[in-house]
TrEMBL record:
This is peptidylprolyl isomerase. It comes from Scytalopus superciliaris. The gene is Fkbp9. Residues 454-489, 499-534 form the EF-hand domain. Pfam families: EF-hand_5, FKBP_C. Residues 511-538 are annotated as: Disordered. Its main location: endoplasmic reticulum. GO terms for molecular function: calcium ion binding; peptidyl-prolyl cis-trans isomerase activity. InterPro entries: EF-hand-dom_pair, EF_Hand_1_Ca_BS, EF_hand_dom, FKBP-like_isomerase, PPIase_dom_sf, PPIase_FKBP_dom. It catalyses: [protein]-peptidylproline (omega=180) = [protein]-peptidylproline (omega=0). One of its GO terms (cellular component) is endoplasmic reticulum. Keywords: Calcium, Endoplasmic reticulum, Glycoprotein, Isomerase, Metal-binding, Repeat, Rotamase, Signal. Residues 20-108, 132-220, 244-331, 355-443 form the PPIase FKBP-type domain.
């Protein structure tokens, strides 16, 4: 009788041999005394055959039925189910009992189809693989018995290909359809949908079933444009970015599977660039148009609008990019100072002008509301002479024509503020600044070009009055004492907001025309006298 001993049975046996199946197995053939007469191991290849179709001796046809892949059986076949009374000349004598030690390697049927088993699927699956899509995936390729023949993980590089247009074996073309990014599935492919009777000529033998453990990392179509997902749009959006604007924004850049490749947050510095001028990849150029300050959006960029087939740095070739951006501010190089009057007193007849001495409070912030500085927290006003270069040009402009008690918001673009460099540790480069201002005090300045004016008639003997010791020369000390006395008595007025000593020294130097530290009567001239002489000379 036929004897079958199951020496090893795998825990998992999803499928057993049935008549009509095609099998690949290894075997050792021996006589009862242990003498070996044949071995597939010696030939280095499995024995490949259909079961139940008369291609095997009757005993082996029966013994293989019910076997699982990786099962090992010891089979004892009597002569009547083997080679009978004739045997095989020179190999198997007549009426020989045969022993076979069989290990099943592979099993399939000509009616089989591609089998797909998904063992992980993301909760969100906005898109699945379709014919003509381009995908990037990792895989482990094994035979049915678990033997590894290839792995993209070992090469540390994804397999990148189009789907459904013949770039892959037919079974893989089918098995990838419908996958989501992040999905993991096992794709089992019969040989007639893989490498067929010949194999691949290298690692894969003929008639081999293939098992691919696949994780999909990326997916796009050459016809794709960018995708914009608005995550937060401020209710107040007075202005949206246009071509030619300069933006400052933060971003996290990831691949479709969530792998982070770059982040401006990690550098603690915004990414600053012009939009629509080709300074960034085409997809980002498009995705940054129409944003508001404070807006958060996700921009999904296909590789042909990103870094293409070659990739860049730690961005692989043909990768879809996902940017989560937060717009901090933007401006245009043609922008001027923006002024919004929030409150103006009913009595507003005296307006600030160049040369006036101003005292005001302010809160300074960025466009996104980040507070930079505040005079309120210092408990004192900020004091300047308007138009004298003591503040940035945009503030000089924003404080013009303001009356005491007025409150206004002044928006200053960087080219009228602190420029590309900003102020280290305080104001970022290329930042738009917002000042909320309240003017508390205004001291009218002097006419342009004057540091001192008389409030009344000028003495005809002015030089003699200054020259207190009547030696015909005026020293700086004499000059300083005289000017101070005139100011204290209300007869004269100095330009407000400047240091007294510096003004007086400047006035004295202007009079000391030969630079010898003394002013003579011949050198001494009033402002209007200087102007008349210059006019006559012209």
């Amino acid at each position: 009788e036929l004897g079958v001993e199951r020496r090893f049975v795998p825990e998992s046996c999803p499928r057993a041999v049935r008549p009509g199946d095609f099998v690949r197995y290894h075997y050792l053939g021996a006589f009862p005394d242990g003498t070996r007469f044949d071995s597939s191991y010696d030939r280095g290849s499995t024995f490949n055959v259909f079961v139940g179709k008369g291609q095997l001796i009757a005993g082996m046809d029966k013994a293989l039925v019910g076997m699982c892949v990786n099962e090992r059986r010891f089979v004892r076949i009597p002569p009547k189910l083997a080679y009978g009374s004739e045997g095989v000349p020179g190999v198997i004598p007549p009426d020989a009992v045969l022993h076979f030690d069989v290990l099943l390697i592979d099993l399939w049927n000509s009616e089989d189809e591609v089998q797909v088993q998904t063992y992980f699927k993301p909760e969100k699956c906005p898109r699945t693989v379709q014919v003509s899509d381009f995908v990037r995936y990792h895989y482990n390729g094994t035979f049915l018995d678990g033997t590894l023949f290839d792995s993209s993980h070992n090469r540390m590089r994804t397999y990148d290909t189009y789907v459904g247009i013949g770039w892959l074996i037919p079974g893989m073309d089918q098995g990838l359809l419908g996958m989501c990014v992040g999905e993991k599935r096992i794709i089992t492919i019969p040989p007639f949908l893989a490498y067929g009777e010949e194999g691949d000529g290298k690692e894969i033998p003929g008639q081999a079933s293939l098992v691919f453990d696949v994780v999909l990392l990326d997916l796009h179509n050459p016809k794709d444009g960018i995708v914009i997902e608005n995550q937060l749009v401020p209710e107040a959006c007075e202005r949206r970015s246009q071509t030619g604007d300069f933006l400052r924004y933060h971003y996290n850049g990831t691949l479709l599977d969530g792998t982070l490749f770059d982040s401006s947050y990690s550098r603690n510095h915004t990414y600053d660039t012009y939009v629509g001028r080709g300074y960034v990849i085409a997809g980002m150029d498009e995705g940054l148009l129409g944003v508001c300050t404070g807006e958060r959006r996700r921009i999904i960029i296909p590789p042909h609008l990103g870094y293409g087939e070659e990739g860049r740095g730690n961005i692989p070739g043909s990768a879809v990019l996902v940017f989560d951006i937060h717009v901090v501010d933007f401006h245009n190089p043609s922008d001027s100072v923006g002024i919004t009057v929030n409150y103006k007193p009913s009595n507003c007849s005296v307006l600030s002008k160049k040369g006036d001495y101003l005292k005001y409070h302010y809160n300074a912030s960025l466009l996104d509301g980040t507070l930079l500085d505040s005079t309120h927290s210092l408990g004192k006003t900020y004091n300047i002479v308007l138009g004298s270069g003591q503040v940035v040009l945009g503030m000089d402009m924003g404080l013009q024509d303001m009356c005491v008690g007025e409150r206004r918001t002044v928006v200053i673009p960087p080219h009228l503020g602190y420029g590309e460099d900003g102020v280290e540790g305080e104001v970022p480069g290329s930042a738009v600044l917002v000042f909320d201002i309240e003017l508390l005090e205004l001291v009218s300045g002097l006419p342009e070009g004057y540091m001192f004016v008389w409030n009344g008639e000028v003495s005809p003997n002015l030089f003699e009055e200054i020259d207190q010791n009547h030696d015909g020369e005026v020293l700086l000390e004499e000059f300083s004492e005289y000017i101070k006395a005139q100011v204290d008595s209300g007869k004269g007025k100095l330009a407000p907001g400047f240091d007294f000593e510096k003004i007086v020294k400047n006035m004295f130097t202007n009079q000391d025309r030969d630079g010898n530290g003394k002013v003579t009567a011949e050198e001494f001239k009033l402002k209007d006298q200087e102007a008349k002489e210059e006019h006559d000379e012209l």
